[in-house]
CRP-like protein Clp (Cognatilysobacter xinjiangensis), 552 residues
Amino acid sequence: MPTSTRRTTWCAHGSRARSEPTRETLLNPTAFPRQDARTLSDDGDELHFCSTCAFSDACLSQGMDKSALMELHVLVEHVGPIRAGEHVFREGDDFDAIAAVRAGTVKTYVVDRDGREHVLGFHLPGEVIGLNAIDTDHYPCNAVALDTVMLCRFSFPQMELLATRVPGLQRQLFRLMSRDIGRASQLAGDFTADQRLAAFLIGFSRRLAARGFSPHRFQLTMARTDIANYLRLAPETVSRVLKRFQVEGWVTVERRELQLLVPDALEALAAPVLRA
Amino acid sequence: MPTSTRRTTWCAHGSRARSEPTRETLLNPTAFPRQDARTLSDDGDELHFCSTCAFSDACLSQGMDKSALMELHVLVEHVGPIRAGEHVFREGDDFDAIAAVRAGTVKTYVVDRDGREHVLGFHLPGEVIGLNAIDTDHYPCNAVALDTVMLCRFSFPQMELLATRVPGLQRQLFRLMSRDIGRASQLAGDFTADQRLAAFLIGFSRRLAARGFSPHRFQLTMARTDIANYLRLAPETVSRVLKRFQVEGWVTVERRELQLLVPDALEALAAPVLRA
DNA sequence: CGAACACTTGACAGCCCTCAACGTGAGTGG
DNA sequence: CCACTCACGTTGAGGGCTGTCAAGTGTTCG
């Protein structure tokens, strides 16, 4: 019943923000101690937010003043941990918030009426989910945690309001959405299985690198089936192509542990997809 | 040279705005006379803009006050006519404006390094182009007129600025971009040629209907090759499937003139694609 | 230890792309 | 009015990529 109105399952089974701000705290942002920790796993409880956060660019580089920064900070609601298999939201839920992934991987997907699952995307730390729900006021897809996930939740009505006062935030939202448009269309092309998988691996590697993780050795947090449903291939094809890459000596694959030995070869394959 | 910085070709061969506002006019929005004409081919020289415009919803329904409406109106620069085959912008051009199609059809596409053309979308009257350029500050694709095109051009920096003062406009921009994300991902699925073409025809029909045109009988403004490159099919396949639809008695096709006889049959086929 | 699940590997078939040739309509110039 | 050109579209034959089906292996978890 996709048309029914129903409450979001946000944080349905996860614990709430580890230190839920009291109303007094909300009105007194200075209560948050300033820290300079910039580790990948920081919990965001400082003015500069999580260093991995998609909004940190907006905050730090766009000349956002301190008061605006604090206002954004007050909006944040820490959600999690959400365990693997638990849903962040489901298709048809009322849209009321977007979220930045703080840790873990979120998969967004839809199920068509034939029961086939279509994976829309995998969202890594620092990336934002929920932007495609703005148009219809309902989430048009499901979002599920692939491993243990921590989120920064932002009420969208409040975010919208703040964006009118903070041009840097508005601009960052525009950029994020614009980026999603491009990313969504890049896999729409008719590419071979090899090209698709190479593009997936290179894209994954680049996104990890952008957040400070190793681009050469990383873990695939999703099942082969998920990759297949994302790339519009059969799971068997994913398996076969990965094998072929391994035989070529371009990668090593051990369960979900992946190592890129010859990134250039994959880049060459992926070129038409990534820079189509 | 996709990395080179180069001026946009906006209105490269078309005539400029028919009544370019003077600086005084810009500062005196009341100089624009109010009109109530709401025809599909109105030229937008009134407060309510073209009735087909994607922003008219934002203006009229979101409670935008009169002064804000006038400010938006002042931003509009009428561009055209642009003749078939002329480009609105090209990949790599500096991004400085978005545009609403006022009349005609615009095709956006990219050419990969193998020389193959990938059509990203067809943009009908009332729809907006250029939103996917915000992220990189350069247009990531080409935009070409398929027939005689008229545009409403909006300087994006000015639009952004105005959006901070007019929440309704900001919201409309968010909605438009959110919609594009969804639309871009819906053809990413692995569907049969029949499903893709049915979805294309139904989608085209619906979009025309939304702007007041006949949903049952319309003209395909693009070549079979364009449709094929959009749906990731071979032109021959498009031809064959269209033929099959015609044999089934679902449509009549005469060159680019198309008539939907049994929309339900096509809807059924397209269902997995449109509401995947 | 057994069951469920994820993943791999193999055989086969089907959809659609490729290649090729032909038909058609619009525009041009004689 | 007609011949010509050219782009666009159609139709046919053949082959390749990848999906489907099936069986087997390895891993996790109860």
